[in-house]
Automatic annotation (TrEMBL):
Residues 268-367 form the Novel STAND NTPase domain. Coiled coil: none annotated. Keywords: TPR repeat. The keyword Transport does not apply. This is Novel STAND NTPase 5 domain-containing protein. It comes from Halococcoides cellulosivorans. TPR repeats lie at residues 754-787, 874-907. InterPro entries: nSTAND_NTPase5_dom, P-loop_NTPase, TPR-like_helical_dom_sf, TPR_rpt. SUPFAM superfamilies: P-loop containing nucleoside triphosphate hydrolases (SSF52540), TPR-like (SSF48452). PROSITE patterns: TPR (PS50005). It holds the Pfam family nSTAND_NTPase5. The keyword Aminoacyl-tRNA synthetase does not apply.
Length: 1088
């Protein structure tokens, strides 16, 4: 016999379904059903619901691998108490049946069938002690079971009331067509528990995959306003919120990409973060799902996935069970959390009924030819698979795209955008931010946000201004520029909360309230501290944090991960600008350190975890930490340090083995610990902090040797060699790379061997051993060709071109770079193409073909800007500055160098910053301006700060030369002697020869003529041996000037003639050098 308590529940469910979406009150519908329907008919409905639910639960459990439903018992007494919140005193009272019989309507006014299903599913779970916030898959299984039972109950109700006048009563009293309403309920419930949703098994769903379905879209709410500040979900895309971007050939990129997938092979969408890759993928997926001619869509959204993709067999089973042309979409496929999908791409390569649409950031597809990774075989296989997938580079944002975006924004938000599309496009094109795409930049020029902040007359628009204003508000809460008055909070705690939520968002761990409250580890687990943390979070809502309401989504808040990354960048930059007595002992940034320490301590400090639980109550997130502590700790650590290596500017937040303000989780494996050390080294190397990088790589080398991990040892040695070269320690660099080479040969690692040979070539080139460098590059080239590594081949050819140019073999250099350019274009490697174009510009410059050089560098600049490659952009700007200076266009040269300087400072590229400052010093010297010395001194300070001894030697020579030009040879001597000593000490023959030549000029000016002329000849001879004619002419020009100024016109004339003879001795168009020579020796040379 059915439990009597089910009957009033079924009456409530039927009433909710009939009145859903209408103006009629469900309580009135319930009253009509009770008045006009026989009790035994309602009992039939209740019985059908109860029996159907039990059967549905059993079916769902049989279909699921986790068997989470096996222990579900439907105790209707407990379920009703959860739903109706009956008071405890009613539970055992004699009047219980009467209370139950007269139970008020248990669903809220306006609830839909779906709302009712959710509430019943939640009540069943609560009655069984399940926490659905941490098990979204269990929640969906229960929802499907309740939906099936609800549908059966409605069908039984239709059967029982057939032939009665109940429909007339509903029409008269509520103006509802009962037949139509019941059919609509059936349709809605059928949609809610779509059978196709179950193609995906539990493991694939746990790994973040979702199957697109009507049920899925109806369950997941849309966010027409918030999504412009966070990210567009599949539901947002299905609702048409984001605009459709233009395609290359078609009207929209989604249409174009969908046709490509239907007609041919897989595709990988390539672009910058924030450029709209995932939105485009979602649009293609939604279109595919809506097309009745295609099959199902399985989608993995990297922002929603809470774990790594590990269960390939589960996704494979869903693909194999599907009918029709299947589409599998995987975002951020290069990342370790998703790259397992590449093996499935390979498996289904010949299956025309399975297509893969992937997306990847440009920087993730880049490869440093000199770098080595620890898991070489797996990385190489993934690279090979990726190389066989046709890329779809995102079309550059156009004015039409901007106009469509504005139209879409205005339509869904009912707000007006005052700026024209033309003006908006100009604005976003002028505000490049490293790693950030144009669509995200555009979204922060749209009038959306807190009315008291983002729409004020004084507020500035733009992503960077948006981030900075909020950062300053949290870091300086009492300042006049603060957006809100947060001065009532503890300043350290406020700054720590800002760092914690940004870190959780940027790393994609998720902004869970209890994880933010983990800051009690640093600030104390007192009730007052946790109340203040809660108050801070509440105060940040709507303008800094956005409440999350996504289906199955457990984080309490959401922020755009890139926005959060820029917030952390502010933290890192401000920390870097604070001077420390020693770069090696400088501690990592305090607030990020507090966040990391508090987060990681959850895995090892029982008291911390228990104190936190006592303050925040029962928590699914804390239970997850306990249920799988080792795997969760590993994922958290990997999420944080993958972020830092992706954005090296964040390296100051994590420090080194010696300077970190946090401890890694106690349960971290030694392998993870070593991985973190290597990642920190890579990050510090990426931002030019070579001494810190060296500290980490040396530590990692010791780990590898203790474990007898030869592959890890080779990788560490190679990294140490690259850093040593940057520090000017070329002998050490050579030793490291030779050791690495020996190991790779011992292991038979041909790819690693090619990398080591390439790096040895770089060291030989720096030491002026150009023939040796050529030999290394040729060996590396042979291996890359043997392996079919076209990208490695292009890199080796480029390096051979650099050697040929240094040796004055300019025709050969051009040929190498043109061959390299052809390969990069064949591969669609736009970044490699930009590098080859820059190299061709250097050759043209050496040939005196300055207009051609300018054209090459401008083409390279255009590509780097299109790709958002800020580092490449800075290089191209610097090269354009050199060309302009050669042509005497000093004002233009200064403008190029200043642009380059701004970018290097934005990137935290200290070495690039030093180069740009040095070039600005050369322009100032050419113009006779007194700030030339200041530029060089600032560049020198950076080189010394970085431990860049090679850069230091170069800048010291520039400073000395500047002082000679300014007429201060005595002051110049100290700098030049130090430059010479340093160049000889670290083994840089070119720099040693240049410094020697300039020291000789100082001695000549001071009257030590004999010694000066001997040293001059030594310097010129060395430069001739290295084939460095431009440097040779430079030394000659300085000495001609000094000899003439001291009255020895004959010697000046001899040197002038010598310079002309050297120019005539080579078959090169060196008219520019001849012109510069004439400027210092008019009337000295013979008639020519």
């Amino acid at each position: 016999m059915t439990d009597p308590v089910v009957l009033p529940l079924c009456v409530n469910l039927v009433a909710a379904g009939i009145t859903a979406g209408t103006a009629a009150g469900a309580d009135k519908a319930k009253d009509i059903i009770r008045r006009r329907t026989h009790s035994e008919d309602l009992e039939h409905v209740a019985t059908e619901f109860s029996v159907s639910l039990q059967e549905a639960i059993e079916e769902q459990d049989a279909r699921s691998e986790t068997k989470e439903l096996a222990n579900v018992a439907v105790n209707w007494e407990d379920v009703i108490e959860e739903l109706a919140d009956l008071p405890d005193e009613t539970t055992d009272s004699p009047g219980r049946a009467r209370v139950r019989e007269q139970m008020p309507f248990i669903f809220n006014t306006g609830d839909t069938e779906e709302d009712a299903v959710r509430q019943v599913a939640d009540a069943i779970a609560a009655a069984n002690g399940f926490d659905l916030t941490n098990t979204p898959e269990l929640r969906e299984n229960l929802i499907d079971a309740v939906s099936q039972a609800y549908q059966s109950a409605i069908a039984e109700f239709q059967h029982q009331i057939a032939g009665t006048d109940l429909a007339d009563v509903f029409q008269q009293e509520l103006q509802l067509d009962l037949v139509d309403r019941l059919e609509d309920v059936q349709h809605q419930l059928s949609t809610l528990q779509e059978v196709n949703e179950r193609l995906l098994e539990q493991p694939a769903r746990n790994d973040g995959f979702r199957q697109l379905s009507t049920a899925y879209f109806e369950r997941v709410p849309v966010s027409p306003e918030r999504s412009w500040r966070t990210t567009f979900t599949l539901a947002d895309v299905a609702a048409g919120i984001p605009a459709r971007r233009c395609g290359r050939e078609c009207d929209t990129a989604a249409e174009e990409l969908r046709e490509l997938l239907l007609e041919s092979a897989d595709r990988v969408v390539v672009g910058r973060a924030g450029a709209g890759k995932s939105t485009l993928c979602k649009q293609v997926a939604v279109d595919w799902y809506r097309d009745e001619a295609t099959g199902p869509v399985f989608y993995r959204d990297s922002d929603q996935a809470q774990s790594h993709f590990q269960h390939r067999e589960s996704l494979r089973a869903a693909i194999d069970r599907a009918t029709g042309h299947v589409l599998v979409v995987v975002e951020d496929v290069v990342r370790p959390s998703a790259n397992a999908a590449l093996r499935l791409v390979e498996e289904y390569d010949t299956d025309s009924q399975v297509s893969f649409l992937l997306d990847a950031r440009e920087e993730d597809l880049e490869r440093d030819p000199g770098a080595q990774r620890l898991d070489v075989s797996r990385d190489r296989r993934h690279r090979e698979i990726l190389d066989n997938i046709e890329p779809y580079p995102l079309p550059k944002i156009s004015e039409t795209d901007v106009a469509r975006t504005v139209d879409a924004f205005e339509e869904v938000t009912d707000r007006s955008v005052s700026e024209s599309p033309t003006k908006l496009l100009e604005t976003i094109q002028s505000e490049f931010i490293e790693g950030i795409g144009s669509y995200l930049l555009l979204s922060f020029h749209l009038p959306l946000g807190d009315s008291a902040i983002d729409r004020s007359d004084t507020s500035t628009t733009g992503l960077e201004a948006h981030v900075r204003s909020r950062y300053e508000t949290l870091m300086n809460p009492g300042s006049d520029d603060a957006l809100r008055d947060l001065s009532g909070f503890d300043s350290d705690l406020l700054a720590d909360v800002g760092a914690m939520v940004a870190l959780l968002s940027a790393s994609k761990i998720g902004i869970h309230r209890e994880l933010v409250h983990a800051l009690g580890y640093v600030h104390g687990h007192d009730r007052e501290v946790h109340e203040e943390i809660a108050a801070i979070q509440h105060e940040l809502e709507g303008w800094f944090l956005f409440e999350s309401d996504q289906e199955g989504q457990t984080p309490a808040y959401s922020m755009h991960p890139l926005w959060s990354t820029l917030y952390l960048r502010c933290l890192a930059r401000d920390h870097s600008e604070k001077k420390s007595p020693s770069i090696l002992t400088e501690k990592s940034e305090k607030h990020a350190g507090h966040a990391l320490d508090s987060l990681f301590a959850l895995f090892g400090d029982v008291e911390h975890r228990e104190s936190l639980a006592a303050q925040v109550g029962s928590s699914a997130k804390l239970e997850e930490l306990l249920s799988e502590p080792d795997e969760t700790a590993r994922e958290y650590v990997h999420s944080v340090f993958d972020l830092v290596t992706e954005w090296p500017v964040l390296a100051p937040l994590v420090g080194t083995v010696e300077t970190a303000r946090y401890e890694l989780p106690e349960n971290c494996s030694k392998e993870t610990w070593r991985w973190v050390v290597r990642k920190r080294g890579v990050a510090h190397k990426g931002r030019g902090a070579y001494k810190k990088s060296q500290t980490e790589f040396k530590e990692h080398l010791q780990f590898a040797r203790r474990k007898e991990n030869r592959q890890g040892e080779a990788a560490s040695l190679n990294n140490l060699g690259l850093v040593a070269k940057k520090l000017g320690e070329n002998d050490d660099a050579r030793e490291y790379h030779e050791e690495s080479l020996a190991i790779t040969r011992e292991l038979g690692d041909r790819q690693g061997e090619a990398a080591s040979l390439n790096n040895l070539g770089l060291v030989a080139g720096a030491l002026g051993e150009l023939d040796d460098a050529r030999e290394y590059y040729e060996e590396s080239l042979a291996i890359t060709r043997e392996l079919g590594d076209r990208q490695g081949e292009a890199a080796s050819l480029g390096n051979l071109g650099l050697v040929a140019r240094a040796l004055g073999e300019l025709d050969d250099a051009r040929e190498y770079h043109e061959e390299s350019l052809a390969i990069t274009r064949e591969l669609g490697d736009r970044q490699g193409e930009a590098v080859s174009l820059n190299n061709l510009g250097l050759v043209a410059r050496a040939l005196g073909e300055y207009e051609d050089a300018r054209e090459y560098h401008e083409e390279s600049l255009a590509i780097t800007r299109e790709l958002g490659d800020r580092q490449g952009e800075a290089t191209s700007l610097n090269n354009l500055g050199v060309v302009a200076k050669k042509l005497g266009e000093n004002d233009d040269a200064r403008e190029y160098y200043e642009e380059s300087l701004a970018i290097t400072r934005e990137l935290g590229d200290r070495q690039g910053e030093a180069t740009s400052l040095g070039n600005l010093g050369l322009v100032a010297r050419a113009l006779g301006e007194y700030d030339a010395r200041e530029y060089h001194e600032e560049s020198l300070a950076i080189a010394r700060d970085l431990g860049d001894r090679e850069g230091e030697a170069s800048v010291l020579e520039d400073l000395g030369t500047t002082l000679i030009v300014e007429g201060n040879p005595d002051d110049a001597d100290e700098y030049l002697e130090r430059s010479l000593d340093l160049a000889q000490e670290i083994g840089i023959p070119r720099q040693a020869a240049l410094s020697c030549g300039m020291v000789a000029a100082v001695k000549l000016a001071s009257g030590d003529v004999e010694t000066a002329r001997e040293e001059r000849e030594t310097a010129l001879s060395s430069l001739r041996e290295m084939g460095l004619l431009p440097d040779e002419l430079r030394i000659l020009r300085h000495h001609i000037r000094v000899e003439r100024n001291h009255g020895d016109v004959d010697q000046a004339r001899t040197l002038c003639q010598q310079a002309h003879n050297r120019i005539d001795s080579v078959d090169l168009p060196l008219s520019h050098h001849r012109e510069r020579l004439e400027n210092v020796c008019p009337g000295l040379a013979d008639d020519r």
